[in-house]
Every structure is written in C-alpha cells, then in structure tokens.
Write a structure and sequence with these properties.
The chain is mainly beta and 302 residues long. The protein is 1% helix and 49% strand. The protein has three domains: 94 residues, Immunoglobulins (Immunoglobulin-like, Sandwich); 94 residues, Immunoglobulin-like; 82 residues, Immunoglobulin-like (Sandwich), CATH 2.60.40. A hairpin with a 5-residue loop joins strand 17 and strand 18.
Length: 302
C-alpha cells in the first residue's frame, strides 16, 4: 500500500501565548498548517522538526487525518526551526517527506546582524487614523506587519506586501484607537518559505495629524537599546530645547538641556547614576519655546 507524498505548501502562522508582554518572552510558538492529502488510505500525519534544513529531522508528534494544523510551543527565539510532514496509513506505512518550511523569531536583545534579517526601519502616522510602517529584510521577501495595543498579543495585521519579492517594504495599519502605545513587528517569507519575524517595535499613537517640521526629524539609535554596549545616540535635537526620558509610568528618568548641541548620547543611567531596567521608555524633546518637538517610545533591553 502506498501513501502519497504531501506536496501542498505549508503555511506558518505565529501563535502568541498571552502570559507576559511580548518583549519579555524568550520563547514563542508556531502553527503549521497544510492542505489535506486526498488519498483515501491516509489515516494521519506525522510532524517532524529539526534545527538543520538538511538532516536531523525527528518526529515530535502525530495527528489524525481530520487535523490539518499543529502548534509547536516553547520554542527559543533566535533559533531557526525546520519542519516537514509525512502522511501515514492505518498500518503505519509512511509516505515521503513533504516540502520544507522553517521559521525564526528575532529576540529583543539580538545583535545588529541578526536584526538586519528582518527589522522595522521607520514608523510614521498615516494621517490621524493609522500608521505607515517601513521594514527591511536582508534578502527579498514578501510579508506583512502584525500590530496591537495589547502588549501580550498582536491580533491585527496589515495587508500582505506580496506584489513581488523585495528587501524594502511599506505597510499601513488599519484604523487605530488614540491615544495608545502600539506594538508592531514584521513577518517575512522568502521564496523558500523561510519565515523570519522581527523584534517588536513600539509607537505612541496620538491620533494627531503630523505637522511639517522645520528641522530634520529626531533620530534615535540603536533601538532596541542595550545599555553597556555603547550610548544611545540622539541626533537632530532642537537648538536651545530640552530632552527628557520617562519610564513607562511617566516618571522622569533623565533630562538634559540641549543648548546649541543638537546631538548627544545617553548611557542608560537614570539621574541618580543607576542603570535603568528593561522596558518601554519615552523620549520627549521640546523646542526653545517649550513646545513638544517630538515624542518617541524606545525599547531598552538589559
């Protein structure tokens, strides 16, 4: 008796376990879904996983023929996981391996090289209702952006940017609620079904129509910021203004008058010289007249 090879493409979807904020999670989960094998002798499917695309595949579970999805949980961020399936009949005879799919989620504390695999490069208001999100991948990909104001899950997604495989992408969210902090990340797929998910970025959405700036927009990098690896660079600061960093509770952490120096670094310490803890912080700059020039959330990971 022969069991037909599964040939349908498998689709990765990310499942988030809402137990802690996304940025604090070191593990993730993936859902594999597939088209059912049409042969009447098929009784179920065996799921195989490996850390190598070419070898080392081990059976991690099996499901009956009526099931066409499987969730693999407690997987480490920053690690590539590779999956294949085999169909089986009632006597345990197995078909050949299906096509290969794989995925990796970039952790918040990843280095610059890992982040460059898939990263959000710019977030700007799209009028008063949404956000324009630019994102970049190291190789040509298609994909979308997940977003939500809930730090424990990302339930909304933009439309697919799938006109062609490219390294530079632009996505626009749906209508957002203001004011709120939104959490976003890009989900990319290359032409071999390798999925890479970016680290989580944040944006404080006020619902205000952005006014044209008479000076270049504030530049802050690197984000996420890892204290101890160098300073957080802030450029294009307003002359004779000020810059203040607040924690997630709105408490002032650090403040500096800008003067004529429009670029400076922050070492990640509060005004008492103590290293701040991991979390979302807010950088607020004012101009010489005391008006808010820019408000920007940043992620700090120790």
């Amino acid at each position: 008796m022969t069991v037909r090879t599964i040939t349908a493409s498998l689709i990765f979807l990310l499942i988030l376990v809402p137990l802690s904020p996304l940025m604090a999670q070191s593990t993730t989960s993936y859902m594999i879904s597939w088209a059912p094998n049409p042969e009447p002798v098929v009784a179920g499917y065996i799921i195989y996983r490996s850390l190598n695309s070419d070898a080392g595949f081990e059976a991690i579970d099996s499901v009956d023929v009526s099931t066409t999805t499987y969730v693999d949980s407690d997987l480490q961020k920053g690690t590539f996981y590779f999956y294949r399936l085999k169909a089986k009949d009632a006597d345990g005879n197995r078909g050949l391996f299906s096509n290969l799919v794989s995925g990796m989620t970039i952790p918040q504390d990843a280095d610059a090289g890992t982040n460059s695999l898939c990263e959000i490069t710019n977030i700007q208001p799209a009028g008063t209702t949404g956000l324009n999100v630019d994102w970049h991948t190291q190789v040509p990909t298609i994909g979308f952006v997940q977003y939500d104001s809930d730090a424990a899950s990302l339930d909304s997604m933009t439309t697919w940017d799938d006109d062609s495989y490219d390294q530079n992408h632009a996505s626009t969210t749906g209508e957002l609620i203001a004011p709120a902090t939104y959490y976003l990340r890009a989900v990319s797929y290359n032409d071999s079904d390798l999925m890479i998910i970016s680290a989580v970025d944040t944006f404080v959405f006020t619902g205000e129509n952005p006014a044209p700036l008479s000076a270049p927009a504030l530049s802050i990098f690197p984000v996420p910021y890892h204290p101890g690896t160098g300073g957080l660079s802030m450029m294009n600061l307003p002359e004779n203004g000020s810059i203040t960093i607040y924690d997630g509770n709105g408490l002032e952490v650090w403040r500096k008058d800008v003067g004529t120096q429009t670029a400076m670094n922050w070492n990640g310490e509060n005004k008492n010289g103590v290293q701040v803890t991991s979390g979302v912080y807010y950088v607020v700059t004012t101009n010489a007249g005391g008006d808010v020039f820019d408000k920007r959330p940043i992620m700090i990971v120790n």
